[in-house]
Amino acid sequence: MKIEICYDHIRPYTFVMIEGKPVSQSDIYGFLYPVRGYVLQTWLNPSGSWRGLKNEMMDLTREEPSRLVFYGREIDYLDLERALNGLLNCQCQFVYADYTDVSVKYLAEAEKCFENIVNTPVVMDRDDSDTTRTMAELFPEQKARITGLVRQQEREWLSTINTQSDFFRCAKDDGCCLINGDRILSYDNYGMIDTLMTGLRRSPDMIVVAFASDEKKADFINFNTQYKNHTVTFVRSDEAAWKETLRVKYGVPWEYRKRLERLRRCYNVLTSCFLTEEDENTGDEVSSMSSHIRNAIRKKYKKRWAAHQKNQMDRLYSLLYGIDYIKKGVELNA
Fold first, then answer.
1. How large a percentage of the chain has pLDDT more than 90?
2. What is the structure's pLDDT at 56?
3. DSSP three-state, residue 177
4. Fewer CB within 10 A of the terminal residue: the chain, N end or C end?
5. Cβ contacts of residue 205 below 8 Å, gap of 6+?
6. How confident is the model over 32-79, as pLDDT tens digits?
């Protein structure tokens, strides 16, 4: 059995083919279907109700001879290979296919496409090219919501945990985190680190624990050995080399991912502008013929704007949610 796993670490997205055929996205029981949109390292090992890649592979292959081909970054492949260590009759193969360039290119094009939809005036009357309207004029409420999303400040890719409140906040977020071990960690409460990994929010190696002394660092490294699959990183507070390694592996993709997520939220707001059957009266009674005419013209303009922007919206959707570039990457390396 040949299994191909294609992993885009930017979005993230895992595309799977078995014997050359894509696993159906509509098949909720398909191989790796539940975790296809999560960071790879979060689902390699068992976590909560998720049984981990090795167990999923055993169910799929029944330990019959199989070959797993991984398309992606080598740093991700090495983690996958380590997770499958000991799996019988399985041969793993790595094919370099870093999707960073194309994924970032899609993101940049999506941002440009979004700007065109939001800011470009649309001619409303073919007989009068001076009659134009922008989204802000026709859909002020949606434009205000989008402006708020665009101006929203994103937090840093590495969250610092100095207090219990910091800890509980990070337990609800994703991304890497740095724990001040001297301040909030002890042998008694060490198990709370598990809460940072619930819901496949983060993998153990996305968690760094810092201590001021080598002695305390060594003690917790030894204590950590009793926790299976805990590859938490322990450092001294004045060490810094680990940060760049973590930034390349998780930080840079996380920053792109947040841009993508924000753009998807903006897209969802935009879609409400295309519901042309909505009531245009904004809850007020039409008190005169002139106001009725104004509403009719406004409704016509909204429909015209939506019709003009439809192709752009279709393109924006394919840039934000399409996975064709992953399939093409497989074909190029076939």
1. 60
2. 93
3. strand
4. C
5. 41, 231, 232, 233
6. 988 999 999 999 999 888 999 999 999 999 889 999 999 999 999 999
Strand, coil or helix: 246? helix
Q: Which tokens is 173 given?
A: 């977020």
The string of pLDDT tens digits covering residues 93-121 is 999 988 888 888 889 999 999 999 999 99
The burial class, CB within 10 Å (0-12 / 13-18 / 19+), for 49 is: exposed
pLDDT at residue 296 greater than cutoff 60: yes
Beta strands in 28-152 (DSSP E): 66-72, 90-96, 122-125, 128-133
Element (H, E) at 13: strand 13-18
CA distances 125 to 131, 315, 325, Å, are: 6, 25, 39
Taking a C-beta distance cutoff of 8 angstroms, is the pair 208, 177 a contact?
A: yes
CA distance linking residue 125 with residue 138, whole number of Å: 15
Q: Are 263 and 111 in contact (CB under 8 A)?
A: yes
Cβ proximity of 262 and 150 under 8 Å: yes
Provide the CATH number for the domain formed by 2-98 in this structure. 3.30.420
Is the pLDDT reported for residue 132 higher than 70? yes
Buried b (16+ CB within 10 A) or exposed e, 268-287: ebbeebeeeeeeeeeeeeee
DSSP category for residue 213: S
Residue that is written with structure tokens 């991984």 in the block: 70
10 Å Cβ neighbour count for 118? Answer: 21
pTM: 0.85
CA 77 to chain centre: 19
pLDDT in tens, 218-232: 999 999 888 776 789
Residue indicated by tokens 């169910």: 59
The CA distance from 52 to 79, in Å, is 13
